[in-house]
Amino acid sequence: MKKVGVAILGLGVVGSGTYQILTEHREFYQKTQDVDIVVESVLELNRERALALGVPEDKIASNIAEIVSNPDVNIVVEVIGGISAAREFVLAALNAGKTVVTSNKELFCKYSHELERAAKRQNAGLYFEASCVGGVPIIRTLLDGVQGNKISSMMGIINGTTNYILTKMTNEGSSYEDCLKEAQRLGYAEADPTADVEGFDAAYKLSILSSLAFHTKVPFSKIYREGITNISKDDIADGKSLGYVLKLLAIGKQSEAGIEVRVHPTFVRQGHPLAAVNDSFNAVYLTGDAVGDVMLYGRGAGALPTGSAIVSDIIYAATHSENKYSTFKNTAGADKDTKFISDFKSAYYLRIMVEDRAGILAKIAAIFGRNNVSIVEMIQKPIGVDGRVPLVLITHETRELAVRNAVAKINALEGVGHVETVLRVIS
Ligand code: HSE
User: Fold this and answer.
1) β-strands 224-225, 388-395: how paired?
2) What pLDDT digit, counting tens, does each position of 366-388 carry?
């Protein structure tokens, strides 16, 4: 039976989960995959942690050189995260001809071109299923499952921390700050939650996923990004009363006009499949020209779900003699022939605090009319603050720039009203 040696760089949450799956399922893979996958080495500075997991003392390496020079190691799993050490170690492994499996979305988003070049040079594999949406097999779906389609749209809830926070705000009417604290207490959110709550994590993943879906490099810099830190209880409650739930959506679309890629909080109509994705769960909703709609749902983080994605890459690499690389020109920046759309179209939710007196509504409506923004529904609440009341409205689909112009004009009408919230809406 073919024997394949694996080294794991980092035994944090995901590294430990990967070690556990590989050791517990070793016989199962021998039987079902006809391959003996053995953890030959781990790189973990905290030796106690490695020993507690059951790693034999002689399998704990002290540095990356020991791993890349070990002839029994065929596959190197990078689960350290961040850029500097991870990039150096992954390049060292690829340059030594080892296949690399990584869960590192930031590294892959920013340096896939450099890593792929090194991999191709050495005829080594480079696999990254675990970099996006944890245990949900979205990358293999894009590469192997729906590759016969032209993908026109991809919408996903691809960050579990923010989905947990927004679900809790929706169900309990609690503030963003309180829900963030609870997410931190439960270990979903980091002590510094910026990467999750400001949408960076989702944008790294969207860059990778949309590059694969649209067969062209979609750099991080092309992604419009907005996080959830300014979302108020009132917005969530108003959306709810109009039949919407708020989700941090990552959206990628491709049409004749070009590609649009964005991450922002979005009101989703109750009844839409994504509206039912709650707590720390993730989902991706794809539309292909042949297959129609496909939705994948599952856990986007955690030791075993992310370990599951890593082990699926290990098994793929261990059982295939040919490596797979990207289907597009993998460069540092966008291909000059790819057009990106920044003035995208969407429906909008606006919350405007207005003076409660005659004629105000007419002035605001006139501004929307002049900017070609058409209103679908509107509610004015009777209870306000300092003589101002909230006016909440949903628009028809319109251009982002038109809404921004209208908002600037309303805010410039001294003493009339102030736009407190602008959120996109899908129905
Ligand atoms: N922090 C991410 C999330 C998981 O909350 O979904 C890893 O990308």
Assistant:
1) unpaired
2) 999 999 999 999 998 877 777 88
Q: Give distance in angstroms: CA of 280 to centre of ligand 1.
A: 9
CATH number, domain with residue 389: 3.30.70.260
302 C-alpha vs ligand 1 centroid, how far in Å?
8
Cβ of 196 below 6 Å from ligand 1 = yes
Please state the domain count of the chain: 3
Could you read off the pLDDT of 123-159 as tens digits, one per residue?
Answer: 999 999 999 999 999 999 999 999 999 999 999 999 9
Signed CA dihedral, 170, 171, 174, 177: sign only: negative
Residues 238 and 169 in one domain: yes
Q: List Cβ<8 Å contacts ≥24 apart for 401-405.
A: 401/343, 402/371, 402/372, 402/373, 403/348, 403/350, 403/371, 403/373, 405/371
Closest-CA residue to 130 (of 49, 193, 219, 208): 208
Do 113 and 158 lie in one domain? The reply is no
Residue nearest ligand 1's atom 7 by CA: 301
pTM over 0.90: yes
Residue nearest to atom 4 of ligand 1 (CA): 301
Same domain for 211 and 112? no
Q: 294 and 145 share a domain?
A: yes
| Ligand 1 atom showing the smallest separation from residue 164 Cα | 5
Domain of 175 in residue numbering reads as 138-299
Q: Which residue has the tokens 């049409």?
A: 255
| CA 423 to ligand 1 center in whole angstroms | 23
Does residue 351 belong to any structural domain of this protein?
yes
Q: Is the domain of 20 the same as that of 103? A: yes
Contact 118, 95 (CB under 8 A): yes
Tell me the CA–centroid distance for residue 425 and ligand 1, in Å. 24
Taking only the tens place, the pLDDT of each residue in 231-250 is: 999 999 999 999 999 999 99
Inter-CA distances, 125 with 67, 92, 415, Å: 17, 13, 62
Is any ligand 1 atom within 6 A of the Cβ of residue 135? no
Last residue of a domain, one of 98, 131, 164: 131
Judge if 78 and 191 occupy the same domain: no
Q: Please state the atom number of ligand 1 nearest to the C-alpha of residue 201.
A: 8
**pLDDT (tens digit, 9 = 90+) per residue, 394-414?**
999 999 999 999 999 999 987
Pocket test for ligand 1, best of 108, 159, 164, 306 (most atoms within 8 A of CB): 159
Which residues does the annotation mark as catalytic?
A: 205
Confidence (pLDDT) at 310 = 98
Q: Are residues 150 and 262 in the same domain?
A: yes
